[in-house]
């Protein structure tokens, strides 16, 4: 098997450089004054082994390492570095067979990793810190999206500053948990307001933030990504208002990161480094050639072979899109709706470009501040949080 690899390189060199190839190791030059190449038996072992080892280290001849990577939500422009690295072959060049997998509904990603169904998953820094405080075996190693997160409200809500949110109904995933009120209360207090945290109404509209506000099921929505929900509300003409986490006392946690378990990190450390470098290369392409990146993304979501590992929900969405397209051909109302959808998609794509960082690392001080806020707001056990060091659930060794 090894000699077959050597012979293959020999043939390549022969075609490219017109070198003689009388034996599998004839990539080596003939002796001075001789027209003959050395046979395997004639080649000195000391000269042969180094070149053979270099050959075997060449990733182009290695079996790709499969990386099953779980997304935190349905595939969307937040995942651009993953999509571009996959479609442009950057992962393949790095010796990786990356499979992007969407959750059918919701999954505890670290349990999927422990069960061998995933190797790596996407999460937010907020959830990474919370999971670590609950004793889950998680460790993050690369940030790839940093959007502006915060609280969304509409112009009709009579809210003009954070203190105006006191006692209003909040829509947020995880309701009726403490997360939504903790965010809003922190902003109210940062604005000089005083409010009873029990006074807030709670609505679980999932991630359909704009719909919850449109339906007047809530006055404000939090855990909002500016590049998605705010853009969506703008395109719908709803006159959205937005309070940014980072401007009103809340840790800036709307950042997507890759994480795994400590065991998988140790087992896949070289491959995870290559994963990060391929995504970094993709981010460079996205920023230099956004129009090309948009085409790559569009091709991917239209059902290319690279997207074959997505879930049935994606398949249904694609069928629905196809049906909508057919209807638009005969229905002018449907055609207008589709034009609006494309305009929204383009606006979200453009807004997402600014959220792709070149630096994939995060500081220990950042996680210390995040954990301190989680403890202060009662989201993490006060006996656990202060004792939990950032290096226990985050490493920059892969990203730097």
Structure description:
By secondary structure, the protein is of the alpha/beta class. The chain has helices spanning 2-17, 45-57, 80-87, 90-93, 109-114, 125-133, 179-190, 209-214, 226-235, 262-267, 269-288, 290-301, 312-330, 332-353, 364-376; strands at residues 65-70, 96-101, 120-124, 139-146, 149-154, 169-171, 201-203, 220-225, 240-244, 255-260. Strands 2-1-3-10-4 form a five-stranded mixed sheet. Strands 7-6-8-5-9 form a five-stranded mixed sheet, sandwiched between helices. The relative contact order is 0.15. Mean pLDDT is 84; it is low at 1-44 and 305-323.
Lay out the secondary structure.
Blueprint: H1 2-17, H2 45-57, E1 65-70, H3 80-87, H4 90-93, E2 96-101, H5 109-114, E3 120-124, H6 125-133, E4 139-146, E5 149-154, E6 169-171, H7 179-190, E7 201-203, H8 209-214, E8 220-225, H9 226-235, E9 240-244, E10 255-260, H10 262-267, H11 269-288, H12 290-301, H13 312-330, H14 332-353, H15 364-376
Parallel strand pairs: 1-2, 1-3, 6-7, 6-8
Antiparallel strand pairs: 3-10, 4-10, 5-8, 5-9
Protein traits:
single chain; 400 residues; 5-stranded mixed β-sheet; 10 strands
Mean of pLDDT: 84
- Characterize the largest beta sheet: strand count, sense, and whether it forms a barrel: 5 strands, mixed
Helix content: 40-55%
If helices are DSSP runs of H or I spanning 4 or more residues, what is the number of helices? 15
How does the helix and strand content classify structurally? alpha/beta
Strand content: 5-15%
The helix/strand series, from N terminus to C terminus, equals: HHEHHEHEHEEEHEHEHEEHHHHHH
Q: Any idea what the radius of gyration is? A: 26 Å
Strand order in the sheet with the most strands: 2-1-3-10-4
Low-confidence stretches: 1-44, 305-323
Shape: globular
DSSP strand tally: 10
- Taking the alpha carbons of the first and last residues, their distance comes to 36 Å
């Amino acid at each position: 098997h090894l000699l077959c690899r050597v012979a293959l390189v020999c043939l390549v060199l022969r075609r490219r450089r017109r070198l003689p190839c009388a034996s599998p190791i004839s990539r080596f030059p003939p002796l001075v004054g001789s027209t003959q190449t050395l046979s395997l038996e004639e080649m000195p072992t000391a000269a042969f082994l180094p070149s053979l080892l270099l050959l075997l280290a060449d990733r182009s001849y290695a079996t790709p390492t499969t990386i099953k990577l779980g997304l935190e939500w349905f595939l969307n422009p937040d995942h651009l570095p993953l999509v571009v690295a996959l479609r442009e072959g950057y992962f393949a060049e790095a010796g990786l067979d990356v499979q992007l997998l969407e959750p059918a509904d919701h999954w505890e990603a670290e349990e999927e990793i422990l069960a061998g169904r995933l190797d790596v998953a996407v999460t937010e820094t907020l959830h990474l810190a919370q999971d670590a405080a609950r004793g889950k075996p998680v460790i993050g190693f690369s940030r790839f999206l940093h959007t502006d997160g915060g609280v969304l409200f509409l112009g009709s809500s009579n809210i003009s500053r954070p203190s105006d949110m006191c006692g209003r109904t909040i829509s947020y995933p995880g309701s009726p948990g403490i997360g939504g009120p903790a965010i809003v209360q922190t902003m109210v207090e940062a604005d000089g307001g005083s409010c009873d945290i029990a006074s807030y109404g709670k609505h679980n509209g999932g991630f359909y933030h704009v719909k919850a506000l449109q339906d007047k099921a809530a006055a404000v929505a939090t855990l909002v990504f500016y590049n998605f929900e705010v853009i969506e509300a703008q395109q719908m003409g709803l006159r959205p208002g937005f309070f940014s986490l980072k401007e009103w006392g809340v840790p800036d946690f709307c950042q997507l990161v890759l994480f795994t378990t400590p065991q998988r990190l140790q087992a896949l450390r070289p491959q995870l480094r290559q994963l990060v470098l391929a995504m970094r290369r993709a981010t460079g392409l996205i920023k230099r050639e956004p129009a090309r990146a948009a085409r790559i993304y569009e091709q991917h979501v239209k059902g290319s072979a690279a997207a074959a590992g997505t879930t049935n929900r994606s398949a249904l969405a694609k069928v629905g899109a196809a049906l909508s397209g057919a209807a638009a051909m005969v229905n002018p109302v449907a055609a207008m709706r589709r034009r609006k959808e494309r305009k929204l998609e383009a606006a979200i794509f453009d807004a997402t470009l600014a959220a792709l960082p070149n630096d994939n690392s995060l500081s220990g001080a950042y996680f210390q501040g995040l954990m301190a806020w989680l403890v202060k707001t009662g989201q993490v056990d006060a006996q656990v949080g202060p004792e939990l060091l950032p290096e226990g659930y985050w490493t920059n060794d892969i990203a730097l």
